[in-house]
Amino acid sequence: MASNTLSSPNSRWTTKQNKLFENALAIYDEETTDRWYKIAMFVGGTNEVEVKRRYEMLLEDIKDIESGKVPLPAYKRNAGCSRVNISNAEQR
């Protein structure tokens, strides 16, 4: 559900653009001058307005997930994996 929210008819992003967007957010923090412009150039095929809108939608998705409005998926255990190493933080 959360990832569907990020796709709107006005702005379709590829999987590659989404990954570039995530990486750009890590590179260009809130203190970066012209952050949205730099992220848009890093992602390509978009502009500052779309990037900022996508960021705001991402924050809303995170808020919904953390508040329990979006259930976490029930991941299937890999049949070939006999050992699962999950940290305490990941279990929460």
TrEMBL record:
<dbReference type="InterPro" id="IPR044636">
    <property type="entry name" value="RADIALIS-like"/>
</dbReference>
<dbReference type="InterPro" id="IPR009057">
    <property type="entry name" value="Homeodomain-like_sf"/>
</dbReference>
<dbReference type="GO" id="GO:0005634">
    <property type="term" value="C:nucleus"/>
</dbReference>
<keyword id="KW-0805">Transcription regulation</keyword>
<protein>
    <recommendedName>
        <fullName>Myb-like domain-containing protein</fullName>
    </recommendedName>
</protein>
<feature type="domain" description="Myb-like">
    <location>
        <begin position="9"/>
        <end position="61"/>
    </location>
</feature>
<keyword id="KW-0539">Nucleus</keyword>
<keyword id="KW-0804">Transcription</keyword>
<dbReference type="InterPro" id="IPR001005">
    <property type="entry name" value="SANT/Myb"/>
</dbReference>
<dbReference type="GO" id="GO:0003700">
    <property type="term" value="F:DNA-binding transcription factor activity"/>
</dbReference>
